[in-house]
Amino acid sequence: MNQTKNNTVLNIILLFSIFSLLIAYFIQYILGYKPCNLCLIERVPYILTIIIIILNLIISKFEKIFIILLSIIFTVATFISFYHFGIEQGFFSESLVCNLSNESNNLSKEDLLKQLSEKVISCKDVSFKVFGLSLATINAFISLILAAITTKLFLNYEKK
Length: 160
Description:
This protein is 66% helix and 2% strand. It is built from six helices and two strands; from the N terminus they run αααααββα. The protein has a two-stranded antiparallel sheet with strand order 1-2. It is elongated.
């Protein structure tokens, strides 16, 4: 019974992760909102989640390890999202992560002009909101909930 419950919860998290990435790509490519670097980093936990849960479907004997990995991933994702939220609210200053680009000291005039003409997206600028909340804020709460769910799955894991 517990195994079925774990599989159901993991499948829901898998579908939710796929759905979350599809929404992010829809907002970026269809609606035309360019994400900042932290927004791109916040997608990584969902990609890792999809890989881990698919691996769990293939190799189910490592389910307990996969569940603890998911718990760690969503805990880290929560901290990243709250950090992004803090930057948006002015609690933290932007870090080097927000200013990552392919910089080189040997730029030609054309490359320098091209780089200056490209609009750099700041991590503190909120360009897209849902119900008045930034996507970083929403992601912080979702990551916190998923961290709690996966941690509870791990703590309640039934030994075979």
